[in-house]
Amino acid sequence: MTVTLEAAEPDHLDDTLSIHAALGGEHPDLGVTIAANLLRSEADCGDLARAGARVRLVRQEAPAAAGLAFTSSHEVDKAYVRCMRILMGVGARTIVATHDPRLVEIATALAVRSGREPGHNRFQFRLGVRPDAAAELVAAGSQVSILVPFGPDWARYMSRRIALKPNSVGQAARAALGR
Q: Are residues 105 and 43 part of one domain?
């Protein structure tokens, strides 16, 4: 089992990164989630990559205040790719947490360009989202984990996901009902 820290809100990120820095030396498999939509994320990815951290890269976790984040989907995607380049260029233990086919394809190409063996490619998909693509990645030698909300705050997590992406309702229902 691995543990990955995640700031519930963008203004909690400094505290999350401080906790990671304090515990990361003693627990090297402790990961941290970085949301590419934040303007600061490229710098954070550089710092974490140089420190040898395990980084889970997501597009966005929660809406950020104006002036702190990219707002267009296209700009967020470009920031995501820049963050992947930084992380993979240094050889960081990167978990590409997206089901966007373009970003998965770019991540795979960046991994090859960075000299990574397929077994070192890590992806994360949410339960019920593109299981066929996850199976293809595994067949190609990549590692794929499935994000399954659990624990006492699972409903709050799902509410946040639905607010960010309303189509999450259908995905969650299909996954819960076994299609």
A: yes
Structural domains counted in the chain: 2
- 168 and 126 in a common domain: no
Contacts by 113-119, CB closer than 8 A, 24 or more apart: 113/88, 114/88, 114/89, 116/88, 116/91, 117/141, 118/142, 119/143
**Judgement on whether residues 163 and 122 belong to the same structural domain of the protein:** no
- Predicted TM-score (pTM) of the model is 0.86
Burial 45-57 (b: 16+ CB within 10 A, else e): bbebbeeebbbbb
pLDDT per residue as tens, the chain (179 positions): 789 999 878 889 999 999 999 999 899 899 999 999 999 999 999 999 999 999 999 998 667 778 899 989 999 999 999 999 999 998 889 999 999 999 999 999 999 998 888 778 899 999 888 999 999 999 999 999 998 877 887 777 777 767 766 665 565 555 556 65
